[in-house]
Design a protein that fits this description.
It contains 14 helices and 28 strands. By secondary structure, the chain is of the alpha+beta class. The chain has two domains: about 325 residues, 3-Layer(bba) Sandwich (FAD/NAD(P)-binding domain); about 110 residues, Glutaredoxin (3-Layer(aba) Sandwich), CATH 3.40.30.120. The longest helix has 24 residues. The chain is globular and about 70 Å long. Keywords: Oxidoreductase. It comes from Paenirhodobacter huangdaonensis. Pfam families: FAD_binding_3.
């Protein structure tokens, strides 16, 4: 169908963080995007709150982090208190990765503002608020969205319309998993008066709870709704203030938001139906105990955007889109399972189980080597592609993992590897210039990927002063093929012959070289 018959390449339904991040990454790749949001104004109250180092890396890579630097609380310690308020565990260390703490919080309205501001600078992306998508109909060439008073025609649509997604429901997709019977009172306060500066879990089987600091003097409190509680009472101002005061939270604070949540661990039976795709809470929801809700949605955006852009630019066949769920679902299962186990262990309401937990935590904390190991280890399952056909795992133990992104020295100037690699594929030569060893077939494959070639520690302009990449990889010299989402797709030894990248042609459904409009960011 002729290009002029489409209003945009991709229509995104929903302007939450997942929808905005997807639009931003597609727009940076030159894709024409229209984001449709039924709310007239952005949310002004917090919802998601926790970040990990991968989320921070993603925000830095797309140029959002510097816009909202004051909206974060970094390097949070954790304390676990028993029913009597005695410390079961206290961790002041916070694991680090990619130049960030692995544990911290953010203020979601500011995050969405930063994403919206970055999008507004991309002429190929349009954000339309006050627009409700009433139906989506697809055919062989594209999708047509019914907007009530009009329609919009796109080549693909991505539904980021939340856990109750009307798009998912219209597709008839079952939301597999479980809904927990427990409900939680979630309270966001202003003018925080809590004496601690980190995360505190109140491991009291009579009423488990937790508290987490947030930017701007805010603090999140969560209390389990117990059997027999009246929901109207436990969400009242007086009840909330009494519970917070019992936990040492003072009395002079303001309340920004108070809601009752039911937690879920569910995912859609499919993430793709033809030209319609699901992302974020529309595709999966998880309990909050491991802080992986919004983080999972941003991972969706990172995994999907480059594949969709590649299809639209003619690099890949559309079948590569089937790898989106294949790659995301295993990590989602691991993260959700961890969150469920953590919640069940820490927030149990069974006195005998709580007694056993308390004894175990105190025992581990009393052994310095064990305590130190746990303190410096991030227990949340990482974004690792173990069985994806889009990575060649047998090539090296680091294949399928996120590449490190140290500060490199470029003519005396400190530059992150992420910035040097740009928004697309990159072949990083560690200790060798890629151009000097690539054969004709491998060069052709890299051209078809649109890959950027970099040489680090080759005697040229790019140096790794701390040797981070060599330590991380454990091999030098080497050629490291990195995907746009920073997952290592392959590691090759120089001099192993031409055609080492032939496996990519079938795995990625590679087409002949296509003209691309990717934005260079090095």
């Amino acid at each position: 169908m002729p290009q002029e018959n489409f209003d945009c390449d991709v229509a995104i339904i929903g302007a939450g963080p997942t929808g905005l991040m997807t639009a931003l990454q597609l727009g940076r790749a030159g894709v024409r995007v229209c984001v449709l949001e039924k709310r007239d104004e952005p949310f002004t109250t917090p919802r998601a709150i926790a970040y990990d180092a991968e989320l921070m890396r993603s925000l830095r890579t797309v140029g959002v982090l510097e816009r909202i630097g004051a909206s974060f609380v970094h390097d949070l310690g954790v304390r676990y208190l028993n029913a009597k308020g005695k410390v079961l565990w206290s961790s002041t260390q916070c694991p680090q990765a990619f130049g960030f703490a692995a544990r911290g919080t953010y203020y979601q309205p500011d995050l969405e503002r930063g994403l919206s501001e970055a999008i507004a600078e991309l002429p190929q992306v349009t954000l339309r608020r006050g627009i409700e998508v009433r139906a989506v109909v697809q055919d062989d060439d594209g999708v047509t969205l019914d907007l009530g008073g009009g329609s919009l025609r796109a080549r693909y649509a991505v539904a980021c319309d939340g856990g109750s997604s009307p798009t998912r429901a219209a597709l008839g997709l079952w939301f597999e998993g479980e809904t927990f019977t427990e409900k939680w009172v979630v309270v966001d306060t202003l003018e925080d008066q809590f004496p601690g500066d980190g995360i505190v879990f109140f491991c009291d089987p009579a009423r488990p709870g937790l508290t987490v600091p947030n930017a701007g003097g805010r603090r999140r409190w969560e209390f389990l709704v117990m059997p027999g509680d009246d929901e109207a009472e436990v969400s009242s101002d007086a009840w909330v203030r009494a519970r917070i005061a019992e936990r040492g939270g003072g009395a002079g604070f303001g309340i920004e938001r108070c809601v009752i949540y039911t937690f879920h661990a569910r995912h859609a039976a499919k993430f793709r139906v033809g030209r319609l795709l699901l992302a974020g809470d529309a595709a999966h929801v998880t309990p909050p105990f491991a802080g992986q809700g919004l983080v999972g949605g941003v991972r969706d955006a990172g995994n999907l955007a480059w594949k969709l852009a590649g299809v639209l630019q003619g690099r890949f066949g559309a079948e590569i889109l089937d790898s989106y769920r294949l790659e995301r679902l295993p990590q989602l299962h691991r993260a959700t399972g961890f969150a469920v186990r953590l919640g069940g262990f820490i927030m149990t309401t069974r006195p005998v189980q709580a007694w056993m937990r308390d004894r175990l935590m105190r025992l581990i904390w009393s052994v310095p080597p064990l305590r130190d190991y746990i303190d410096r280890t991030d227990p949340v399952p990482h974004n690792v592609q173990r069985h994806s056909p889009l990575v060649r795992r047998r090539a090296h133990r680091r294949v399928g993992r996120l590449i490190e992104t140290p500060e490199l020295s470029v003519a005396g100037r400190a530059v992150r590897l992420d910035a040097l690699m740009g928004p697309g594929f990159a072949l990083v030569g560690l200790g060798i210039e890629p151009e000097t060893v690539l054969g004709r077939n491998d060069r052709d494959t890299l051209d078809r990927l649109g890959a950027r070639l970099l040489g680090v520690e080759t005697g040229g302009a790019i140096r790794d002063p701390q040797g981070v990449l060599a330590k991380w990889l454990g091999r030098r010299p080497a050629l490291v093929l990195v995907r746009p989402d920073r997952i290592v797709a392959d590691v090759m030894a120089p001099g192993a012959g031409d055609g080492q990248l032939d496996w990519l042609v079938g795995a990625y459904a590679l087409n002949q070289p296509a003209i691309t409009t990717e934005k260079e960011t090095a």
